[in-house]
Amino acid sequence: MASAVWKVSNVGRPRKANRAVYERPQKPAANLHAPALRSPLILVTPDDEEDDDRNCGLRASRSTPHFVFSTETTAESRKKSTRAQNSQTSLVPPSTAFEPPSSASTSDLLHGAFVENLGDEIPSSPVMGKNWKQMQEATFTNWVNERLKGKQSSYTGPRIQDLRNDLCDGLVLIRLMEVLTKKKITGYVKQPRITVHKMVNLDLALRFIADEGIKLIGIGSHNIFEGNLGLIMGLVWTLIQKYQIRMTSTRVSTKAVMIHWLQSILPEWKISNLNTDWNDGRCLMALIGEVKPGVGHDVRALDPTKRRKNCARALAIAANHLKIPQLIAPEDLSNPHIDDLSVMTYLSYYCEPAKQRLLKWVKRMIPQMRVTSFGADWVDGRAFGALIDACFPGLVPGWHQMEPGNTKENMAQILPLVKRSLGIDADFTAVELARGQVEELKVMTFINYVRHGILLSLPNEVAVSGPGLQKAVIGKETHFEIDTTQAGPGKLFIDAYYENGLKVTFTIRERVTGVITLTYTPEMCGVMNFDILWSDTPIPRSPFSVPVSDSQMIRIVDFEHHPRAVQVNQSLELFLDTRPAGTNGRLFAKLEYKQKGVESTEAQQMSFPDGTVKLSYKPTIPGKAVLRIFWNDEELPHLAVSYVVIDNMQYRIIAKPEEKVYHTFQHANFQVRSDNGQLNALTMTANYEDMQFPIAFSSIQGNIGHASFVPTFPGCYRIEVACVEKLIEGAPFTIEVADPSRCKLVGTLPKYLKLNSPYEFRVHTGDAGQGMLEVTCPDRAISRLFDTAVHKLASGDSQGVVVTPRQMGNYVLGITFFGGHIPSSPFQVTVVDPSQCCVSGEVFNRGKAVVGKPVQFQITRMGPERELKPQVKASGPSAKYVAEVSTGDDKVYFVRFTPWEIGTHEISITYGGFDVSRSPFRMGVQGFDSDICSATGSGLQEALSGIPAQFVILAKQTGLIDDGILVVNIRNVTQPVDCRVRIRDNKNGTYQVAYLVHLPGAYLISVLAAGAHIPGSPFRLTARPGPEPDKCSMWGPALQPNALLKIGKPIDFKVSAHGAGTGALVVKAVGPGGTQARVYLAKPEDRTGIYDVKLDPVRHGKYRLSVKWSGRHIPGSPHILKVYAGADPSKCRAHGPGLEDGVVERPSTFVIETRDAGAGTLKVRLHGVKNAFKIELKPKDQMDQRTLQARYNPRKPGDYLITIKWDEKNIPGN
């Protein structure tokens, strides 16, 4: 089976390949829906209390938090609150809880005691420090102050400290409503002094609130005047919802909408509440980074256990960079018992910057829609369609055709599509959107989920169509298309196979994005199956079955082994497989001849149960014939078989190779004749052992063919010429082949042969063929010059050639095999007669030679060979000598060598490699007189351990070292320690002796000449300790890794040579441009061996300090010193807002530049209130380490003094 996978990227052009993966990247699908939450503010009226006693308290629900307003009087509520706190129980018993009807309006409901959140995280009992009521009151108070002190506010009164008392005269409430509504309120008493004036102002403010569409039930001016904190808090929360969070819908609670929005903007944080999820400050820091990227700290680096610190840092960053007021204290935000409404009020300030950033992204994605807000621009649904199609190309292709005023139909198309393709549920309906009842926060939440969403894989949306799925015809190409444009991301897998399991070859190509065209050509009849899967799931109607049938699928069985050239009257059989063509058909075959007038012959048929048909026929006429096959009277050209019919009696060999023996690569030619001219039907081969080589005609002239064979191996070849496996007349025949190059000469060829002495050449001929070697002399008669004889050796595959020269002279000899020279043949030899060399001179003076005295004699040559020189070798009892041979005239040679051993020496003299008469000669050599040698030099009396010492030996003769006559030994007197000695022959009768002692002490130097001491030997030597640089050490402040060295200040260190032996200290410091610092050495006055070293550099830069003891580096040397220019505080500069007046809890910075101030130490000190803050210094840029940024965060007010010094000196402005 053949299978393929197709890969196409979700964005951009797809890759085209036969086997690939079509895949879109997956992310977790977003789900906007959470459990439905009730409206967070509920009012209980007196009538409700009478109708249903369940409405007298709060219901503690984990999944549905509620806020309850009690209608009890202020005194009663305070008493109950006191009792609840004293008993440490919930404010309202759970058994008396109630759940308000879902139709209650958020703006109609106010709070009685406090606006409570009885969710999972907030217990009703008091906690350490502030309780949740105090946190809520502080947050609401801060919100009122922030709105009153806003940019568009004209309020000039004092800050609100207590909501219970500061709102009683109505002025603050009137000013607050003017700021929130941007409307002017008139008719109020500007300076209320009596109760009536205050009540008038409060009534006017409440009527204005009611006119703004906020229903007030159960609260009046007297409640505010009397300081009913619960009702006042409920009123403030209603205003926060209306004007801060801007929530008006009742279908989903404000808390639920806020959590959904936070989940959409921070999906990775899994936010589920508005209290404990925010205690460690990390979610808030992440929200800041999302609203304004690049601001804030790395959230992953924050320690979740440092909750208050993280919250304080996040609140400060938001205030500085986002201008968000710090309504909540860090200790309150990090408290797990903080109430939801306080956190919700603070987080609502992030909606506006998040909105602007999201709006900027939307404008970039769909600039053609000109979106300016998340309100009216989205009502008709066209902006949603354009944005979704921009994020996921092709998902909403018809958004351009949407009618602008047809909101319900447009959103009815978009919302189900988004849910099906992206898994996103909108928190609003098409009807609500059409009526304008959807707040901007819900729209922003939906767009955030679309922005971070991914397409889902939808196998049921894959569509397949095309003619290639209906039927197919053998040999005809067809195709079908697979449309995945609506199927989302996924992998397309295709597996195509026949019923019998054989694979189907096909190609795939993506002509349009997401539309794949599959093309194939059927090769057999039957049923083809296509398995198509999208993301490992079969698409609808998969697998697809396609029937294939065609008579063109009839095939010849084993056609490759069917003969094409046949003999006359040869019975032939041909088997056909007709199963792919079906059972409804008729087969017919006939054998036709190319000759005109010859009738065709019908083939006999025999059918078998397996669908195979056998055709039997017999050609009767030589020539060309063709078997034509028909199916249902339709000829099948692809089944036609052509034959060449041959009669082998019409062929014969008329000319065979003439040579008896051929060499390798030599052409062996023969000719073949044909009576009918059909020579191409012949098969010609050359058979060699178990190998067979084909032979072809080099040319054909008429009915005669000329064939040529080139053998490559030596041996016997059998040539066969056959017609349809039958040999023709004259075949087979054989030829012998030899290869002289495969002969191998054993040993090396001689340059000289001795007159009248036989010499045998041995040649391996086993790989060259069958035959005998011959000896030739190209330009002369061999029989007059040499006696030759050839015989086979005992091994059988080698032969020996014996040559006996009869005349002196230079000759060229050849050794041939079947007429061909073997390797290295021909070659040149010289016949010599060593008996004609005469030796005379001191070589016959036996026992009179002396060691070191040259021996001379001469050799006289009588023969005619001028270029041949005698060879002389001399050897003693253990040594061999090189004799000097010089030429006197063309027949006299003078020989000289100097013996250096006592004893018998042997002198060998050869001529042409043969010993001359009486060779080898023997002579005796007497001893050497050691008194002729002497030694001198300082190295005979004293030396330093570890330092080479020398002296000189005077001998008046050279070559005494090579012959072992001159020997020097040095040994320690008290210890078995030997010394290394080296002797050099100066070639002038003197010898230079160098030695090295490793330990101090007394030594004896023995100088032996011919085994005897020379005068003065053995010499007494005293070795003193030598220098040991490894035992030296150096230290000091200038050598410290972080030493700050300056020009003009002392740069000193110490060097200890204690225990380092005798030596000299040398110190150098090389700086820029090869300049050297001045060095001052103070030698030790006592036995401590410690030197004081001072350096005085003239230029700043890097210096290479070298400290050597007797020419060798000590440990730590060489050492690199960095010398800086002197400090210049006037070049320092400090600037920035941090050097001016600051504000508590607002970080400030300033910059200190020391780039041109030379080397020095920077000190920044703070004088003022103790433990108020610290100054942090770090490089402003990694590429500029000399520019530092100082940062501090003052926590206490006061006067502070910042001092900046460079190298203990004030910088300018300090």
From TrEMBL:
A GO term, aspect molecular function? actin filament binding
Asked whether the UniProt record includes 4Fe-4S among its keywords, one would answer no
Please indicate if the UniProt record lists Repeat as a keyword.
Answer: yes
Q: Which UniProt keywords are given for this protein, alphabetically ordered?
A: Actin-binding, Repeat
Filamin-type repeats, residues: 459-548, 546-645, 666-737, 735-831, 829-925, 925-1023, 1024-1123, 1124-1214
By sequence similarity, the record places it as follows: Belongs to the filamin family.
In Swiss-Prot or TrEMBL terms, this protein is called: Filamin-C
